[in-house]
Amino acid sequence: MPRRDWLAVIGALTGITLLAWLYLWTLEMPGMAAMQLRLWTAGYFVMMFLMWAMMMIGMMLPSVAPTVLIFAAVVRKSAGQGTPTAPVSAFVSGYLAMWIGFSLLATTAQWGLERAALLSPMMVSKSVGLGAGLLISAGIYQWLPIKDQCLRQCRSPVEFIARYWRSGVGGAFRMGLAHGAYCLGCCWVLMGLLFVGGVMNLLWIATITLFVLLEKVLPLGQAGGRVTGLLMIAAGGVIAFM
Question: Whole-prediction pTM value?
Answer without folding.
Answer: 0.91
